[in-house]
């Protein structure tokens, strides 16, 4: 096989990414339910209608097909509008404000108001506004206003995590997963609205995360008390939780590295020394995660979690960790010029093609075991396209702009 297919910035690699991208966009066409909330997609893209229809998945699909519009993918506009129908309708709590975590198969509201889901509403609305969709501007302003009021803590420079449905009781748990996607959403909103308030806020979150990671051998603590004291043993009895697993999550270290790089370049255009310090931190996060988790148990793939000494705990490979590894290796190569990252990228791409891409049914396998056999204990089916689609785009576009803006404006490498 021609290895140039896997090598960054080659025509062959761009063609491969385009092929994968087209397959992903075609795979997701059946996501909209009649009310617009997103069905969970099964192995072949058929909706699993017995599963909950979650707000964050609906948001991701709005974001994906907004980008699909910029790429000229057929039916993208109607699919964005379907997701917006859900976000402006069934998923929105008109009594207490904000967005439900989701709906059951029977249409009942899921409890609680999640920072994680609300960050994705901002991302979805930003991308849909960029795509010129009706109702997107109002949705974005409503989402930002609600987020500012309920989730953002200006004094701490961080976001809280979960309220009850009525917004009367705030859970004591604080977490970095929601804050990570807040950074992504804030950077997108800053780019779309041309309002650096949100870029500054993203930087405040990043400052805290870099400090915590640097003091923990570049393994990021994920779970905290309401006083922001790290809980390193949190969920030790449930180590493979899909959103709050025990220990370090190498995929998040990798994802943070990319977001930190994006912020550093966009926020410090006139201060290359400051940008360089944060890019160095991003390199440390990426290198620690890859060293701990890639091929850590004798087979290719990135282990889901490790303990605080870097020993794998959950050996399963989640598709999103590979997607983020592809993204960040590409970004760091383009920013630093270091061949190590190009070599990593080629390894990740070959593994994607040989193992994680489902060449029969489409999309990517969402969970494999330590021997790279299909496993469906945490992520059965193929819920959405967000991580995978972005991994076909971020390697091709400039690293200092949110991906929807970069694609729309054709800001290629």
In short:
This protein has about 425 residues and is mostly helical.
Explain what this protein looks like in three dimensions:
Helices cover 48% and strands 8% of the residues. Strand 1 (40-41) and strand 2 (47-48) form a beta hairpin. The chain has helices at residues 11-27, 55-70, 76-87, 115-130, 136-150, 176-193, 197-214, 250-267, 272-293, 319-336, 339-356, 386-391, 403-408, and strands at 40-41, 47-48, 53-54, 102-103, 113-114, 152-153, 158-159, 162-163, 174-175, 223-224, 303-306, 312-318, 367-368. Helix 7 crosses helix 8. The two termini are 26 Å apart. It has a three-stranded antiparallel β-sheet. It has a two-stranded antiparallel ribbon with strand order 1-2. A two-stranded antiparallel sheet has the order 3-4. With 413 residues, it is mainly alpha-helical.
Low-pLDDT segments, ≥5 res: none
Mean pLDDT: 98
Helix content range: 40-55%
Helix-strand pattern: HEEEHHEEHHEEEEHHEHHEEHHEHH
Shape: globular
* Major β-sheet strand ordering: 11-12-13
According to DSSP, the number of beta strands is 13
* Radius of gyration of CA atoms, rounded to a whole number: 20 Å
Structural class category = mainly alpha
Kindly estimate the percentage of residues that lie in beta strands according to DSSP: 5-15%
For the sheet with most strands, the description reads:
3 strands, antiparallel
Helical stretch tally: 13
Calculate the terminal CA-CA distance, rounded to whole Å: 26 Å
Keywords:
413 residues; mainly alpha; three-stranded antiparallel beta sheet; two-stranded antiparallel ribbon; 13 strands; globular
């Amino acid at each position: 096989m021609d290895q140039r297919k896997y090598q960054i910035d080659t025509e062959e690699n761009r063609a491969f990414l385009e092929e994968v991208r087209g397959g992903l966009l075609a795979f997701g066409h059946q996501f909209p339910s009649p009310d617009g909330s997103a069905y969970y997609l099964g192995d072949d893209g058929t909706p699993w209608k017995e599963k909950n229809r979650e707000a964050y998945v609906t948001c991701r699909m709005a974001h994906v097909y907004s980008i699909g519009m910029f790429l000229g993918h057929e039916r993208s506009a109607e699919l964005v509008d379907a997701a917006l129908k859900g976000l402006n309708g069934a998923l929105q709590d008109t009594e207490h404000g904000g967005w439900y975590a989701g709906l059951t198969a029977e249409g009942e509201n899921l409890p609680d108001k999640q920072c994680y889901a609300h960050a994705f509403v901002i991302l979805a609305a930003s991308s849909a506004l960029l795509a010129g969709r009706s109702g997107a501007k109002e949705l974005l302003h409503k989402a930002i206003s609600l987020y500012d009021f309920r989730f953002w803590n200006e004094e701490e420079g961080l976001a809280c995590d979960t309220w009850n449905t009525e917004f009367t009781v705030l859970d004591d748990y604080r977490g970095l997963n929601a804050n990570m996607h807040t950074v992504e959403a804030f950077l997108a909103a800053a780019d779309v609205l041309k309002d650096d308030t949100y870029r500054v806020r993203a930087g405040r979150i990043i400052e805290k995360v870099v400090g915590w990671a640097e003091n923990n051998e570049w393994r990021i603590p994920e779970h905290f008390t309401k006083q922001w004291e790290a809980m390193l043993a949190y969920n030790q009895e449930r180590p493979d939780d899909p959103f709050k697993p025990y220990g370090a999550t190498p995929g998040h270290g990798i994802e943070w590295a990319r977001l930190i790089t994006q912020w550093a370049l966009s926020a410090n255009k006139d201060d290359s020394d400051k940008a360089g310090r944060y890019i160095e931190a991003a390199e440390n996060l990426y290198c620690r995660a890859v060293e701990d988790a890639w091929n850590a148990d004798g087979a290719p793939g990135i282990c889901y979690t490790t303990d605080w000494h870097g020993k794998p705990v959950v050996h399963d490979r989640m598709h999103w960790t590979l997607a983020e590894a592809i993204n960040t290796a590409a970004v760091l190569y383009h920013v630093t010029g270091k061949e190590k990252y190009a070599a990593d990228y080629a390894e990740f791409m070959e593994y994607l093609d040989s193992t994680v891409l489902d060449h029969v049914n489409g999309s990517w396998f969402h969970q494999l075991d330590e021997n790279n056999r299909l496993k469906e204990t945490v992520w059965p089916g193929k819920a959405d396209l967000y991580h995978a689609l972005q991994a076909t785009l971020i390697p091709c576009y400039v690293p200092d702009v949110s991906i929807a803006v970069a694609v729309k404006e054709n800001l290629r490498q």
